């Protein structure tokens, strides 16, 4: 069994360079790779393209990279919680490629499975389809969408073992699984890293073949974007 465990986030992100394309798991602030993002901030890499469902908030998640002007382009689906994102987009400082959420997920899955492209009806007749091949199937029009190409995928899981097998918990099982194996190198940070054989094979969501490096994360904040609670009666 190949041991994919590395000692820390610094080793896990070895090889990260300016101008690369990164995939980052998470939905809102749920299940984001906090340690990897923090290391990207520390490294100060610039001119990067980030593929993520959203861009975090102003002072957390990918919002930290935006504050430092490290991101050249964002490929996202929902970006409504970040004022700095809005400012950079409207000023022309940030290139933005808005993608339907299902298409974003499928572009990740296509890359994971080794498919170069796929047809989808989403976006036909809109700006999303401009410059792309379209084709009719059974009387319905479809848009040809290419699979993503990324240098690194950064994902966060609840549990993992040294072979790279991963288990996600709750809503953190969002874009993380489909980004595993969808880049040249997948880096997984986990809340609990266990020995090989400690995970129930029937509970594993992503097999280790999709992961190249895994490490034990630390100091997770697990913020909630908009906390709503019921008032006491």
Molecular structure report:
With 233 residues, the chain is of the alpha/beta class. It has one domain: 3-Layer(aba) Sandwich (Glutaconate Coenzyme A-transferase). It is built from 6 helices and 11 strands. It has helices at residues 9-12, 34-43, 63-67, 83-91, 101-113, 176-179; strands spanning 21-24, 48-51, 71-76, 95-98, 117-120, 134-137, 140-146, 152-161, 166-167, 185-194, 213-216. The strands form 2 sheets. Strands 1, 2, 3, 4, 8, 9, 10 and 11 form an 8-stranded mixed beta sheet that branches. The protein has a 3-stranded antiparallel beta sheet with strand order 5-7-6. The protein is globular and about 50 Å long. The protein starts with 8 loop residues before the first helix and ends in a 17-residue tail after the last strand. The mean pLDDT is 94.
Quickly name the level 1 CATH class. Answer: Alpha Beta
Query: Helical percent range?
Result: 10-25%
Shape: globular
How many domain regions?
1
Keywords: Transferase
Organism: Asprobacillus argus
InterPro entries: 3-oxoacid_CoA-transf_A, CoA_trans_fam_I, CoA_transf_BS, NagB/RpiA_transferase-like
Protein name: CoA transferase subunit A
Observed structural traits:
three-stranded antiparallel β-sheet, Glutaconate Coenzyme A-transferase, single chain, alpha/beta, about 230 residues, eight-stranded mixed β-sheet
Summarize the topology.
Elements: H1 9-12, E1 21-24, H2 34-43, E2 48-51, H3 63-67, E3 71-76, H4 83-91, E4 95-98, H5 101-113, E5 117-120, E6 134-137, E7 140-146, E8 152-161, E9 166-167, H6 176-179, E10 185-194, E11 213-216
Parallel strand pairs: 1-2, 1-8, 2-3, 3-4, 8-10, 10-11
Antiparallel strand pairs: 5-7, 6-7, 8-9
């Amino acid at each position: 069994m190949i041991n994919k465990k590395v000692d820390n986030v610094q080793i896990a992100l070895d090889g990260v360079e300016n101008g690369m394309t990164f995939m980052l798991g998470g939905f809102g602030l749920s299940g984001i790779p906090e340690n990897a993002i923090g290391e990207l901030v520390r490294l100060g890499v610039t001119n990067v393209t980030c593929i993520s469902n959203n861009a975090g908030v102003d002072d957390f998640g990918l919002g930290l990279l935006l504050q430092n002007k490290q991101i050249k382009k964002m490929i996202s689906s929902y970006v409504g919680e970040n004022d700095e994102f809005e400012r950079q987009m409207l000023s022309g400082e940030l290139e933005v490629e808005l993608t339907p959420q299902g298409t974003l997920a499928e572009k990740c899955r296509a890359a994971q499975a080794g498919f170069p492209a796929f047809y989808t009806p989403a976006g036909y007749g809109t700006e999303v389809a401009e410059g792309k091949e379209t084709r009719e199937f059974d009387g319905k029009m479809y848009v040809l969408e290419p699979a993503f190409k990324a240098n690194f995928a950064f994902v966060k899981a609840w549990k993992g073992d040294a072979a790279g097998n991963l288990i996600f918990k709750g809503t953190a099982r969002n874009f993380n699984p489909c980004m595993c194996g969808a880049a040249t190198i997948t880096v997984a940070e986990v809340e609990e890293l266990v020995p090989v054989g400690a995970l129930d094979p029937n509970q594993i969501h992503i097999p280790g073949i999709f992961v190249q490096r895994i490490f034990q994360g630390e100091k997770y904040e697990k913020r909630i974007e908009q906390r709503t609670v019921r008032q006491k009666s």
